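Technical appendix A lists one of the benchmark inputs used to test multi-chain prediction within the project. The record comprises two sequence entries:
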Amino acid sequence: MSDNRRRRGVASVSQVKDSLGCMKRAIKMYFGYFPKLAPVVILCFIVSSVTALLPAIFQKEMIEIIEKHIATGDWEAAKPEAVKLIVPLICIYVVALLFSVFQSQILAFMTQRFMHNLRTKMFDSMQRLPIKYFDTHKHGDIMSHYTNDIDTLRQLVSMAFPSLIRATIVVVGVFAIMLSYSIWMTLVVVLGVIAMMVITGKVGGGSAKYFIRQQKAVASTEGFVQEIMNGQKVVKVFNHEKEAIEKFEELNKGLTSDSSKANAYANILGPIINNIGNIMYVLIAVVGGVLLYFKVPNLSLSGAAFSISILVPFLNMSKQFMGNLNQLTMQMNSIVMAAAGAARIFELLDEAPEADDGYVTLVNAEIAPDGTITEADHKTGKWAWKHPHKAEGTITYTELKGDVRLTEVDFSYVEGKQVLTDVSVFANPGQKVAFVGATGAGKTTITNLINRFYDIEDGKIRYDGININKIKKSDLRRSLGLVLQETNLFTGTVMDNIRYGRLDATDEECKDAAKLAGAADFIERLPEGYNTLLTNNGANLSQGQRQLIAIARAAVCDPPVMILDEATSSIDTRTEAIVQKGMDKLMEGRTVFVIAHRLSTVKNSDVIMVLDKGKIIERGSHDQLIAEKGTYFQLYTGAFELE
Amino acid sequence: MIKKILRCLKEYKKDTIFTLIFIIGEVILEVLIPFITSDMVNDIKAGARIANIARTGGLMVAAAMFSLLFGTLAGKYAASAASGLAGNVRSEMFRRIQSFSFGNIDKFSTSSLVTRMTTDINNVQNAYMMVIRTAIRAPFMFIFAVIMAFVMGGSLAMTFVVVIPVLIFGLLMIGKLALPAFRAVFKKYDKLNESVEENVRGMRVVKGFAKEDHEINKFNKASGDIMFDFTKAERIVGLNGPLMELCIYFNTVFVLYVGAHLAIGSKGDIIDVGQISAMMTYGIQILMSLMMISMIYVMLTMSVESIKRIAEVLDEEPSITNPAEPVMEVADGSVEFKDVAFRYSAKAEKDALYDIDLKIKSGMTVGILGGTGSSKTTLIQLIPRLYDVTAGQVFVGGVDVKDYDIKTLRDAVAVVLQKNELFSGTIRDNLKWGKEDATDEEIIEACKTAQAYEFVSSFPSGLDTYIEQGGTNVSGGQKQRLCIARALLKKPKILILDDSTSAVDTRTDALIRLGFMEYIPETTKIIIAQRIASVMECDMIVIMDGGKIIDTGAHDELMARSEIYREIYEEQTKGGNDDE
């Protein structure tokens, strides 16, 4: 819908003011990338604008020559004068053309370089934002920074900005020339301009009103279409096509009529401006004629007497003046839009990145039989936390075991709405800890805290005895394998997707991981096996198959701790039984946090935590909890519904 | 393809024609105005009487007024024609989509259909408006201005003999070089945006695996690649400006110098100051009109993609249509599959279903079990003819489903789909999809049977509770039960539940099934389930694997005979209980 946004009416003064700050920053940023080129480009703009003023001046001079010689009809006498006038003009034009070609090439280069820099800067900042940002912003809105907002900025630097400079110079220049020729005539032009402003303001306002209405109509139609398309199969099953069409026609009628009105207003702006120009032309001609006829003394900055050689270029200048002034107001609009786009982009760029004060890192380690740990520069299969102590200037190493302890943790996403209260979980290396509870009970939240997608409010979390706040986030997360309910695969081959878990994994290691996850079977049956290209989040695979690849991805990363958040909920029980074998192998010797909807998945956990409204209400092994005959027992026997 | 879209103009044909007529009027006046002004200039110069000047001025004001009138009308009709066209195309597309079978729907993703109905149609609307406003204007402006230039300027018009070919040649060259470059780069650009979307959606994975730097590198490379291509394309297009300037400069120099020569040489007989001034105006008009034509060309090529994608939908023939003499009544709820095979598309390598022979007597309760990919859903979708069989026949009530009136058949066969959807509206609105004139009593009865009444009546506004788009304000289990109630209201001859109680607890699940016995005892009930408990008591259980039926029978028979069944049974009931 960006086209429509672009075409709204004239901008108000306050909007212009608001956006000035953003504008300044955008321009600063733009030229900041090209400190040497910037003055060159501005020089180009000035040359091309000044050149636009030339015809008026040269026309006046030439008419004077014609006037002087027309009575005699002696071209030979006039020729030297004409040549003397025309040769400099040609020279100036040739130079101007060279500048123009240079400007077009350099501008294309600068615009694209700027776009590239801005895009990568945005993407870079975005990667460093905390998960919270993505949880609290609609993906569509984030995306529109990369499409609509950046596009308005492109228009700004490549089109609006140059033509703004040019139009300003031309308007000022023409105005100065007009004043120097005749103040009376200039007055007439100014009156015409005021009339034009008033009328276009009115029409533009009407246009804006209807564009807003159109926007609303578009949104509601789009919403309806989206909903029906989503449920198209339900519509078919219930023979509901006729009703859907009726409702759609109603919305469509409104949209068509609003769109027609909005565009009509926008369309008539052109003819209005054009013809006010024409009427002004007549006015100037008549006033000029009167001045000439009655030989009214001219009032001008140059002191020249009023003559036909002034009147004729004046007529053309009046058009040029209006045209450029009009362009200025038009550009104002696109500048306001661009400023709004820039403001949204800056919002993203200014968003505070995910803080990471961690200094404990994960290193390959060699462990001597006596337990001493030394850092290794190659893969040893063992890992250790490297813990520098600033105060003493020493470094200690702690073996990575997968011992995770949460003690009395409190957490809330929004202040005042406590999600977790007093949660304590102790997971010994190799233990399987399960979380069970209704949607919103806080199961996923706990795992979000362990990998520090979010930070705890109160309490503490220790990983192998180290406060997790001290661990560098990327290293912390590298030690935690993650399989989520919503699988997200990336465009690329199956192999690429598995390797995502660890970029330096060999093909063999990836294949082994796939085998472990029980995914190898179906992958090998794909048309091109591991080289099958996945697009659109693996749309060509079934949900279960996607999940198996996600499990393989986690397996290749070979982490000591795994988080499985509803990892098997979209696989049927029979397939799950197969996957479960792979998963069991995967879980062997690792600390595992499991969140599952199906209790059959968590039954064999070492500890099961039953969560309710952010509190752990029951904990124990399956048998213990069944014996307790509490909530878990009720869930297990089907007396309770989990949602 | 374009014809296909234009056929949707219908009642807006006349608006289009009016637009064209008024634009021709506007153009004629616009071209006449410099002619009048040159007269006026000459009058003034000759020191004519004010009355003369005023008369010419009056003529010009009149011309401007008419030009304004025509311009306004043209603008209004153009807006109406383009919006009308867009409205008709939207309507045509929506109707076409409504006539699609499941097979047709599968070809297009939801989001692609929505884009086609919004962005693409919007592009077409803008392109159409631009074309009818300028496609006539530009060539007419060009022709009239050239004629006037020759009429008025005589040999001075020779400038255009030089300028026009140069400009046309230049524009063609630029277009030829730039268009493919742009097309290629736009494709890459779309891909880049898709990859950003993927990244945003998968942010938990990116961060979870600490792959931010990897993603940044990937993006930087792709973005740099695009920058390179884009710069190349834009540099070509950037030459447009200098080319235009070259022509205007040439024109200015030529008209000034040669004009002066002619004016002085002929003592103002052939040409005078007024004409010289007018020739400069015509020069700009002619060059602008050529520029406009090249812009239209660009605009059209840009919208071709949109047109293509719209035409794709309009050209898609519904794969399932009513037979010529349809059977208008379904006798009973019996179902029979005879030698059925099915594949989703001719290109598919394997049959999704094969060797299917199955007889279900009216009133039976049938359970279907099988792993993912065993084609359970595919099987049941053949019953209400959501897809057509590839080979063999499906009978409902003893008649081949292909012989039924589709509406009659689907009214008799209610399917609760796996991918359930509720629509924005009240609960009552949603349930009335099952029966348009259902009374509150009927609705409540259906809700009770589907075990939905308890929670519905616990809502403050009961049946008037508003369901948000996508049913996001009810839980999964509640949504499933409402969808069952909606299907029950149809009082169908055959009721099919495709894994429709997966989020409902086992006790409620059992109660729902019990309710069926009372509510629709005569109806054939076909239940696809993951939970063995949901199908254990059925009259017949069908076990599917890899697209074929591997066994059918009652629970006891299968326990004795089928290894797979026993496996599933034991898996789910280990420890004396079934899972949640």
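Chain B touches chain A through 170 residues (CB under 8 Å). Residues 171 and 294 of chain B are 7 Å apart (CA to CA). Comparable benchmark entries are summarised in Table A2.
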